[in-house]
Structures
1.
Amino acid sequence: MTGGYGIENLPLGAFAEPSGAPGGIAVRFEDDCVALRPLAAAGLLDDAGLPRSVLEADNLDPLLAAGRAAGAALREAVADLLHDGRADRARRPIGSVGLLLPFTVGDYVDFFASLEHATNVGRLFRPDGEALPAAWRHLPIAYHGRAGTVVVSGTPVRRPAGFRPGDGAPAFGPSRALDFELELGVVAGGPATAVGEPLGIDDVAERIFGVVLVNDWSARDIQRFEYVPLGPFLGKSFATSISAWVVGLDALDRARVAPVTQDPPPAPHLRPADPWALDLDLEVLLDGERISAGNARGLYWTFPQQLAHAASNGAAIRPGDLFASGTVSGAERGSEGCLLELTHNGAEPLVLAGGAERSFLADGDRVTLRARTADGTVALGDVTGMVVQNEREGAPGALSQDD
Amino acid sequence: MTGGYGIENLPLGAFAEPSGAPGGIAVRFEDDCVALRPLAAAGLLDDAGLPRSVLEADNLDPLLAAGRAAGAALREAVADLLHDGRADRARRPIGSVGLLLPFTVGDYVDFFASLEHATNVGRLFRPDGEALPAAWRHLPIAYHGRAGTVVVSGTPVRRPAGFRPGDGAPAFGPSRALDFELELGVVAGGPATAVGEPLGIDDVAERIFGVVLVNDWSARDIQRFEYVPLGPFLGKSFATSISAWVVGLDALDRARVAPVTQDPPPAPHLRPADPWALDLDLEVLLDGERISAGNARGLYWTFPQQLAHAASNGAAIRPGDLFASGTVSGAERGSEGCLLELTHNGAEPLVLAGGAERSFLADGDRVTLRARTADGTVALGDVTGMVVQNEREGAPGALSQDD
């Protein structure tokens, strides 16, 4: 996949100068980063009708608070400047700047919205029980992840240490089952909702500022040992990578399709008047080689359902809250969104082009997630990350339960 | 319990003027709120050696970032002013101001650190299995809660709606099993640790700015239906109440005692050189009547172990991160920290002084958590909250799965 960053897209992000100084917010156009601070200072973005403090901020936080319509107005104003060349002086080659985490993550919620993923994982983690949890078809199951370790695409990911199950006492050391998870995420915008006031499902779309890709890195051995009864904790909390660019939900109008049929029908507060899913082709690359290809349209629980559920108990939604779909897996072999499923928990290792095998990730592996619309015009921001060795491995004095 | 806010304590918080305008940070002394902004403006807090921006902030965020020693220096400077009367003009009766959430919660982690609580809940939720999860004695099990719905003591708590399990399809409606959970929480201070750099257990105490009480309100019916396999979500995320006052860890030196013996011995990275627990008497009041009395010293996993575990995979710890203990229950009847345990899941309802019975909380119930040192000199900030009716209950058009 190439392209996808033309005038139809114009995703928003934040960058740093080569010196490390914050450069402010930016739009991606083709292979350039378009800095908005100088355009705002010259009065060229006045058409967007936004306060200068929003346009001159170091990241998207104030723009997210201003809401989805503010983002759309800004992208439109930038499109005009790009069209007639007035933005040219603010264009910088992407490679010449550093891309920052585009916004401060409020709460990070991770769903379990793919029927195929939930079924596959259930079979592997709970071989003696029902693959699908009893509640799964009634509500979009989710948990809160760690907001403070959400990092921007490109950030190296150190292999985490943790307790791994074994025959006797658990051993503490670097994970031996490090995995990626291919997910979509939506970023909330607009003023915070009031605690105690649920958000109706037909009001959710106005609260979705934009869409990112999410790699919810997972240490399967750590996760498996710790997750009963309170869910994943250290198996996930070491790092979660997201796109440097937030694609406006409006830019994805062309990708809206009818979602899959749900059985049983969802409860009334999870039934939108006009349901939609996103038709986005997805792929995962390992050191540049494609190891998974699927599509997001098959997600069982849609984003409006996910957010309406998360708010249905009265929980407030704040700008900057990140809601991720959970691993997106398809029904066909090769369309699964993580190695746990692609390799059947290591029983069927991937054989890479050079002959190397992978059950889980090796140190030095570079994982890239990609997504774009079927017509190729709009791409989400790639998410890449390289696995870095945990120095504890094999080192003298390495910690283990046997010490 | 009364008292506990003398010169030995001086906990920190933030308040609002009767107009609603932020009043800045404050210290509690006896029954007064001591406003620090006017004292700082008069130069009277210069001895603390803190930037004016820390002293004139609307809440404790900058002070938390400055760290535990900064908090101790500030409390010492205020003690000097109280001693000789120079702080008198900044003293305001507590009842004349509004108390605000004292700091912005970064990530909120909730542990499961009480052996008695974990055992009791395991028996009730999983009667056919082992009461204690396999990993429980090897590591302090935890999950991430919702930071955005942490509220200050005094905030009313609306009964949440959610899916309740039933004989057939689950019903969606207001919880019928609303509970409190008596917990201790510690607030992290100092600069954020680096992602990928675990915090050693003997460095944890320097990262603990102070201590609060936490009521982790829980809807047991919602929780029970949703929690497999990713843990609690909507059953907890509607509200979590914390003290308005953060007690400096230094003020609790007098409460440090040896923790309980752990079997098996913990892994090396969870073995502190100088282990400590907090000897704090705890009680829960329902509309002023005491319904539980216990002590925090029996917690199996200590706070240094909890934080060292949370950081052991390389997760960063940021100022404002909140780590709660999980429900603190004792071994004796009447020392359990939630109604689920106190009433054996409703099988043995509490009979209140007026003759009313409670299996779970009723609308209008006011729950208060209290804690103080055995000598009575240092109290944590009370946490109170009243349950507010969910208007959906019985209302025409109330949502249910049968619609």
2.
Amino acid sequence: MVSQIMAGHGKKRSVIREIFEYSKARSAQIGAENVFDFSLGNPSVPAPACVNETIRALTNGDSVLLHGYTSAQGDAAVREKISDYLNSLHGCGLNKDLIYMTCGAAASLTITIKALTCDGDEFITFAPFFPEYRVFTQSAGATLKVSMPRKPDFQPDIADFESLISENTKGVIINSPNNPSGVVYSEESIKALCAVLDKKQREYGHPIYLITDEPYRELVYGSVKVPFVMNYYNNTIVCYSFSKALSLPGERIGYIAVSPNAQESGDVYAAVCGAGRCLGYVCAPSMMQYVIKECIGAVSDISVYEKNRNLLYDNLTEMGYECVRPDGAFYLFVKALEDDAYAFCEKAKQFELLLVPGDDFGTPGYIRIAYCVSTERIEKSLPAFKALADLYKK
Amino acid sequence: MVSQIMAGHGKKRSVIREIFEYSKARSAQIGAENVFDFSLGNPSVPAPACVNETIRALTNGDSVLLHGYTSAQGDAAVREKISDYLNSLHGCGLNKDLIYMTCGAAASLTITIKALTCDGDEFITFAPFFPEYRVFTQSAGATLKVSMPRKPDFQPDIADFESLISENTKGVIINSPNNPSGVVYSEESIKALCAVLDKKQREYGHPIYLITDEPYRELVYGSVKVPFVMNYYNNTIVCYSFSKALSLPGERIGYIAVSPNAQESGDVYAAVCGAGRCLGYVCAPSMMQYVIKECIGAVSDISVYEKNRNLLYDNLTEMGYECVRPDGAFYLFVKALEDDAYAFCEKAKQFELLLVPGDDFGTPGYIRIAYCVSTERIEKSLPAFKALADLYKK
């Protein structure tokens, strides 16, 4: 018969996808305007104008070139544009032969993990974390260890992290701005984390790769800066997706960037190319590659996210909810009003609030609110959040 | 360090890739118009007009919907359109919940193989075969056995095939119209193959899946019919890509269709969904999904391929080359004029002919000619083929 592990992964869809399907069904019953779906990290603002303008312009050109295969690792001119762009921002010494175009963030991660993993390898990540990290590492034959966060600020707990590193640690996955907490790891956190990694690399005599999953890099509010990790640690691999910055999550376009200072960076890049091949990623969608070439650096108008962040954070904390004020991404990570976040989310459905329990993110007792919706939706939902809180005051 | 297996896959350039690089260098020396590059299977005809028209129309609509996530398995309306279309053509009883949208043929195959594979599993395919089948099956932890073709017609050799089936056979991969031979498996072949599979399923008491990789389905000439395998065998999984029919190879869009008559088809589909998740395929590129919804059934103008087939086949056989007359795809698979196809291809370079040795396709002593080029290129190349043949007459 089929692989029961795969059938299991297919039947037990991620909680987020389950809620997504519930939301569609519920919307069909009572109308989408009556469902407060805060479950999905689907950008609610349109792509910058240049995206659709570029697409239209491209379709008036040579169809065979536009829709034809690029090199497996991506069109050379597109990769050069990306490395030039990153160098101009971060002075990181990249070149096109360290950039591999991917079908989005999930592809960036599965390819990178597959490229690195040998028998018995372990990866470490920090709670709260995107649940698919567990699926991706297990699927590559590795195991995932989880470091619990410092409370209440949800920065990495460096001592806890250090205690998890072993001779078998192949890599560490960080995600900042973080899904689901919205927290941006401070420069202090990054420096401390890299210092521990450097020490442990020397101790074990082999590289430990720092995989930085950063689809939310551009989604930060106020004057907050997201440290460019490659500049703090040599064995860094960036897994990027344009899904959030350009509001293109469905188009599956992103890249992997291997640090030029990584030990034997050419071998790391070759392994990325090999893993892409093994997983069936031959070239990333061609037209979207050319769109990136024209639109890199553009960012959707994210002012609505900041407005939503403020509105939701201020109102929810006033209602008595506890949460860390997010500096980035478009998530609020809130302490559930009972220990069991699943039960809490079930109760929230009474008020048509669709929230995601934090358990799958490695943080039981919390729930995620994706506020990438219209501000009007947030405003309309506030009485529901109030009613939910009141339920617990009785 | 990184996985040496992956680094190996990344470093070992495919023969086709080597020729591609040689072609670029040689073109720079003597001009592209003087190099007869028959190495790449990149469609040379534009996408049907509806494709780019639909793209332009879509970009004038709602950007958030257009570029947003669909369900992991693909947009429901798109999947319904595809199942309706296949039912109307083949009366096969599909429904949308047996269709899984993919990022193209390679993704369709890696997902399907991963979905099926348990420890110790074996797959069988028929030479000549697309070399990546070996990479995909090995990457999933399975082994690939190869059945040699019947000569001279390159249909499956059913007795040889039967001798390869064991208790561990999980699946069989066929590719018709075939890359690289251009041969379409006859209804007689399909029936004989399915009869053997049915017998062996009963003997071993477990399903053996028939994976049919058919990106070239629509590329057939004259009155040739490609049997729809699902109608001949219950445990069939179709791996399709729109890359050739719609001339969209770079866009990475295709689907997996699980037969409604497959044993526990729901479990098979769940395993496909689970494998897609594990490999990092979350939703296929959204805009291209919507393009498929509008353009399914359209086919690029393939008359140039048929014209090229006739021109090349007639002339080459007249010159003394031996090959099976291809009924589909855009390849001619020719017996090399010496035993060593690599040596033959090296000699062909004297006449600026770039051909691909058949060894990597599991068929030493043959060469592949991809005739998806302009007819003018074919015409201009004929004296070079003649000169090459003459070399062996001395």
